[in-house]
Write a structure and sequence with these properties.
Length: about 1250
Amino acid sequence: MPQGKSNISNLIFKIPYERCATTTNTMLHVRMKWSLLLLLGTTTTRLELVHANEPWPHPDALKFTCPDRDFSPQKLTPLSSDRGKGVPKYVLLPTISTSSSEAGSSAEGKLCTLTRLNNKFYIPIGKSYLSHWNDDAWQLSPGRYLSRTSVQCDTTSSDGPTNAITGEPDYLSGEELCQFKLHPLGPADDGYYLQTHKGRGIASTPPRTQAARFLERTTWGATWEEISHLTEEYERDGIMAMAEWAHHQTTALEPTSHRAYFRRRLNPRAVESYLYGIPGPKACEEDARFRRFAFTFKDVQLSRGQDSPAGNDGHPYTVMKIESYAGGGGGKVIKFGGEVRTVTDGPLQYEEDGNLIDLADGDYTICNVHEVADNELGGLPPLTYTFQVLVDTPCTSSYTNRDGLEDNLGDGSIDFENKRVSGRLIRSYDSAACNAKCNDKSKVKLIITGNPTVQLPADDVDLLGTLSWIDLSALAVPEELTILEEERTHESNWLLRRDLDNCFDQNGDEFLDPAGLAFTDLRSTGRGKFNIDKPIFAKMPNNKWALHDFRTQFHQNTMEEPMMDGGGSAMKRAARSGANDDGVLRTDLVTRCSNVQRNIFNEPHCKISYHPDACVSVPLPDPSDSFRRSQYNPGGPLRKGGLVPDPVYKYTPPYAGEDYGGVVVCGSANEVAPDPMEDDTFDVTNRKLHAPVINYNAQKKGVWAEVILSAEDQLCQKMGWALSKIFATSTGTNADSSNSETNINVMDNFVTSCFSTYKDVVKKVSFNEEMGAQLTFLRNKAVHTDWHLRKKLAWPDENYARENLQLHSIGLIKLHDDGTPILDQFDRRIPNYNQKHIFTAAKIWTGFNPSYRRGNYEDLDWATTSYLDPLQISSISARDWFPKIDFESGYIGDTYPLCADLPRKHFLKKNAKYRLLGGSHQPLWHWQSDSTYYDQEFEHLTLTSNSSLYEKLCNPKSTQPPATSLAAGTGSAEYNAALSSAPLCQGSESFCDSNSLLEGRGVNEANPHNTIDDCTDGTDTTYDESVKKIVVSTMTGDDLRGGELVKIEATVISNRIGDVVDFYYTDDATSDPHNWLFITRVSPPVAENIVSVPNTDFPEITYTLPKCVSPEGCRQAVRVVLRSRRAQSRHSNLSTRPKSTCESDKPYGIYDDADDLVFDVLPSYRAKDLCEFQTLVTLDENLLCDKRECAVDTVRVVEVVPGVYYEYIHAPCVYLPFYNNPVKLFA
């Protein structure tokens, strides 16, 4: 390209190749590159395939010239003389500007093409043209002959051979020519042709037209201002203006998330706590909303009962009641669900035959409504259809047992009153009959005054005394109280901008927590309930009245800023306590925990939270299975529903809070908080309470249209659309197709990766639940899964494996950079893969399961798994570990070390990785039975503060010891029956010594039996076999403190080989019963000795003092039990771990001795004060081992400080052997 010219494609190709290509084939690079260039409307960079061994110019080369004018194709006849003989042809061609008689800039707008005619089809070979985009050197055209054609441009150094016809040299020295080596013509081929095409050159095209054409290709529609701005830039900078526009779009603008756009405008009205979130805020809290119209879309749903088995006082149909106002004046009191909504000055009226008819007092079904006061909507003329009432018998339904008698409702419904599920009465209704009534124009009347305005008689003290109301009339507008969307709703919606001074109404009653008010028993198989909550009125600054307008509260929970309580506060507030319909007393889940399950996308951003309400969305393991698992009965009489409620404790970890290990909380991409200044632009599906005027399925289309028409990142939005057309995903085939947010998130996968790597796009798509369900690799299992468990041979599903190879990545055949096929020596296309590769790829897509369902976003109501969050590779038993072939005649895993060859103590080597588990010791990447979850004796490696690994994982802070009222002690135990039935060290000290208080056994002891419970010693004192002394001391010399590592020095007298000593501890010596936890078992030598572990580097008996959270300190204890091996002993097997420390009130054996030592410990350091934990830690150097670390080769879980754990993730390696229990082996 001549210096001084710019090529926009050069600017675009600043995107490095490696960001696009993820395999050895260039298909991915081609797709990303060409998609972007097509959007920009540019040509590619010049394609020059040069055969270096060809002479230039070739002695057989013939020179031709492009026709001067726009004629029909001109055949190059000499090239067709030996068709079918396989002789390649060499052609010399000048560029369009040098071959044209109109040289220079006048050649602009001309195009010369070289084509080949095969079977009446012209196939492009090359082209030459001059424009602002490029110089006019010949370029090869993409197509079937690209790989068999070459072109090389140069300047001749001498005259060419003399032409036999003209007598002149074919070319002169110094000419710029391009030499083509052309593929031989076949017998059926016609020949090669040159043709000139003439159009208006870009130089003669007005700048504004050029700008408009460019923006037409690169945006979803440019505005007049955008075209004008680019025109000015183009007139000043030329083509660089367009290059700079593209560069700005690709580097300076963040992608506009469709999901974030949806959520910022998501303030849906709410009348209940639901799975997504709780209603709020309270009427006294900032962002509380107030409306001036009486009825909403939700009220229509309650009144019509469509898809809703719940209603006021058990009825699925809630009626509007009109009563005469007791204050006179012809006013009417309008109620809904028995609660006052407004008091009108006169009756509601409708028009019939030109006459105004008063709506009589009585009960009515509301068929439709518009959410505006009266009948005004924006700048439109007054509407007469904003409030539609059924002037007929209201929709009703039976809900009580009349022993199957006819209900006499006259609505044509079948009498289901006697129908039962599991012996319990259920209620049914006929929504079709109600819909038919509301569609009958003769029965539905249009109230001419529209949706009634909220108003109350300010002087009616008696009425106001029965209502809950607040006075906002003194608040400043708009600083403290703001009108929302005034132009559209005519002051119908108001927003409170600060907290009020108190949360009491004008009658002195405290506002109830909205989270615990109305609740639809969505998941119960028994009766539901939907009691309309008591409305809260507000007197506004304009001396008008409004109703408090609850909204479902969604919160910011992005990957970078996750909710620190994980949504646990709302979950606990909404939990339903009391007896369920089945009579079981339990706190049931209503609103779900919002903590996102950790995944490959959010994990680097997860944080540890010490919030006391922090929750988890993954149910905690319960080995005893004491809770009922969620079950859905789709086709049952309750239609959508039938789920058994979950107890809240399944999602409330015991290690939440500042005094414990903390909970790891994670967020989700673009899960932003709604903008309080936006109204309820969008809604969320609620299959118990559908608003009939909302098309939930269409919301996602509306979001897409609004974003592409308004977003600044137009090129990204168009690129995202192009990427979405590559991947075979369609939300219409999935179970949540009517939801908005989960489906909008599918488009976000492409938009948010518009200028990222293609690998990122494939990863997001592959971990999306929609793709997993549609291409059927969700819950895919490896061959060994059924074989090992059931001896059945079942192959993994190959659907996604095939589609991913064919459509999403390398494609069927090998391609050149320009997308044309690569041919083998026989001119055959070369396949990229075969069935073996498909089968291998199917092995990869195994073990993918949905994430658990959570709150704070819209999802399928009754599902217990998430349709939004990324898939989890959580099923280890379903994964395939067998070798997998690659595309280069090798295996995936080649060059990786064997796991058996990893160096000793690789957990301390550079690049070793650790994952924060918080207060849970349950690993995520290692197999471990759920039965160990609550097992406090489960083995793990506890680090000391002197450890280098501790330094890396803890990242210590400077901290002061916790405040305490525990006085200093002496460390010398005393016996005090009032405080303990065993030796006790009172106060703070670095050790506790029993001295001589434990000498002897049974009746020979000073204070038998020296245990804090009912455990007794052996009764036979013939032999002096006993625990003589116990000393507990810290390893560092500091005072005994919860969480510190201590050693136990037990002096015992053993008289027989085979005797054993068991060690136990308890965290509370004052509780009853005591929770004794096993430490270890040791076989002591005969005679009197301090018990130790012989022949090891660490002979001491050690354990970590349990956490102490009380400022007064804690009273803990250890127990040492000497179990005799004498024949008279009652022990059958001393080689196994004892089942308990004490067999009821019986002795262990007639020669056994059990003694306790009780001592005070200082309160523990809090983990949050000690360490600055990171979610993922990679060691940046090799570390030296410290004490216990030196005794092991590897670890799974390490305890950094008491109650805080990390999981070790070892480097990738290859396992070769296959054993009987591969599930555990390969975990």
